[in-house]
């Protein structure tokens, strides 16, 4: 772009022209701008010389716009109004009334957006800027006041507070369930499995979930892979197959009876969604307000999960580990300290429950 200063007329002449054109009077423009009538006249003449065309017809004690003046007035008035509105907005913005909020796309779409109106109702004075991205450098930028991020409880440079843990279970549409005889996890292998194709977050896939339930059969022959989780869930809602549902992300769809859980089994890991605030900067009032609201929102709205006519017990089966690259043993119910996989770190135990309560 060329140097605007070399192209634009003097800025004070534009403001003077806008007032004189709007009021159709140099005298009235002078009164509005707190200038003398002769000063207004000089600025209008300077502007006309800069543009090389007359903008006003001058008569005895009266002025009117020329055709060029009318055309120029509409452009100048619009531009100056834009600048004035932007200035007002920025003068009214302060850390107390602004919130830069970051999140990955899944939680932004599925958990935050259905609830964000509630936050705005509770804090109408806070202007929200939401950055939803699966690139952590985007939603955890230096401008972010607070973020909701998925992962383990290990966030160097951030104060972290768990919003909710990770629990995963199969979900499908009621119509799809009615067309399939699903009585156990093994029956899932005869269904179309909707797979999230994602290399960024280390999310649990079907192979990992089935392994956590003691099933080691191939699944790739009956699967559809999609690289966007909201689209995976939309495919499940459209009767295309069975997806893995993340508790709290699919709650609204289950409450609306758009999705159901076909088997009463779930998997838990050590991961979760965390509220993150950078340690190196003071906590903004907007971030503190959002933190309090999000924790209260999560604490006061539980999950209601059903599997057809059966109750869904969230702890029927659980795995307290990251299962990436690991297998459960066939016979023992637990992998004890002496059998640890070094990749999981010391002190981690991998558990598969059989539906009965273990002592």
Descriptive report:
Among the domains are: 4-91, Arc Repressor Mutant, subunit A (Orthogonal Bundle); 167-269 and 302-351, Periplasmic binding protein-like II (D-Maltodextrin-Binding Protein, domain 2). It is built from 12 helices and 14 strands. It has helices at residues 4-7, 11-23, 26-33, 37-51, 67-91, 105-122, 136-139, 174-178, 206-212, 229-237, 251-255, 285-300; strands spanning 56-59, 62-65, 98-103, 127-132, 146-151, 158-171, 193-196, 223-226, 242-246, 267-278, 306-307, 310-311, 334-335, 350-351. Helix 2 (11-23) packs across helix 4, helix 2 (11-23) packs across helix 5 (67-91) and helix 3 (26-33) packs across helix 4 (37-51). The longest helix is centred in the first third of the chain and has 25 residues, at 67-91. The chain is elongated. It starts with a helix and ends in an 8-residue tail after the last strand.
SSE diagram, text form:
Elements: H1 4-7, H2 11-23, H3 26-33, H4 37-51, E1 56-59, E2 62-65, H5 67-91, E3 98-103, H6 105-122, E4 127-132, H7 136-139, E5 146-151, E6 158-171, H8 174-178, E7 193-196, H9 206-212, E8 223-226, H10 229-237, E9 242-246, H11 251-255, E10 267-278, H12 285-300, E11 306-307, E12 310-311, E13 334-335, E14 350-351
Parallel strand pairs: 3-4, 3-5, 7-8, 7-9
Antiparallel strand pairs: 1-2, 5-10, 6-9, 6-10, 11-12, 13-14
Helix pairs in contact: 2-3, 2-4, 2-5, 3-4
């Amino acid at each position: 772009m060329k140097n605007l200063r070399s192209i634009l007329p003097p800025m004070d002449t534009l403001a003077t022209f806008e007032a004189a054109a709007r009021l159709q009077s140099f005298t009235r423009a002078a009164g509005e701008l707190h200038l003398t009538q002769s000063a207004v006249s000089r600025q209008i003449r300077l502007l006309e010389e800069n543009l090389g065309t007359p903008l006003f017809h001058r008569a005895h004690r009266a002025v009117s716009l020329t055709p060029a003046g009318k055309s120029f007035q509409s452009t100048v008035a619009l531009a100056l109004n834009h600048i004035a509105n932007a200035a007002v907005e920025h003068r009214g913005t302060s850390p107390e009334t602004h919130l830069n909020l970051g999140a990955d796309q899944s939680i932004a779409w599925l958990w935050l957006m259905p609830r964000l109106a509630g936050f705005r109702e509770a804090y109408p004075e806070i202007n929200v800027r939401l950055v939803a991205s699966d690139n952590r450098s985007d939603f955890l930028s230096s401008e972010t006041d607070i973020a909701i991020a998925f992962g383990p409880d290990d966030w160097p440079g951030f104060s972290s507070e768990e919003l909710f843990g990770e629990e995963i279970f199969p979900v499908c549409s009621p119509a799809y369930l009615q067309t399939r005889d699903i009585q156990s996890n093994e029956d899932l292998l005869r269904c179309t499995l909707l797979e999230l194709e994602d290399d960024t977050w280390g999310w649990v896939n079907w192979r990992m979930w089935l392994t956590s339930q003691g099933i080691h059969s191939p699944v790739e022959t009956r699967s559809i892979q999609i690289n966007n989780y909201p689209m995976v869930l939309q495919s499940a809602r459209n009767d295309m197959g069975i997806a893995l549902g993340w508790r709290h992300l699919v709650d609204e769809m289950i409450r609306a009876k758009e999705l159901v859980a076909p088997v009463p089994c779930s998997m838990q890991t050590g991961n979760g969604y965390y509220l993150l605030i950078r340690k190196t900067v003071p906590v903004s009032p907007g971030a503190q307000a959002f933190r309090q609201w999000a924790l209260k929102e999560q604490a006061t709205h539980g999950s209601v999960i059903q599997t057809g006519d059966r109750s869904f017990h969230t702890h029927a089966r659980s795995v307290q580990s990251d299962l990436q690259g690991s297998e459960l043993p066939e016979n023992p119910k637990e992998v004890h300290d002496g059998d640890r996989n070094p990749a999981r770190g010391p002190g981690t135990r991998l558990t598969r429950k059989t539906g009965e309560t273990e002592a």
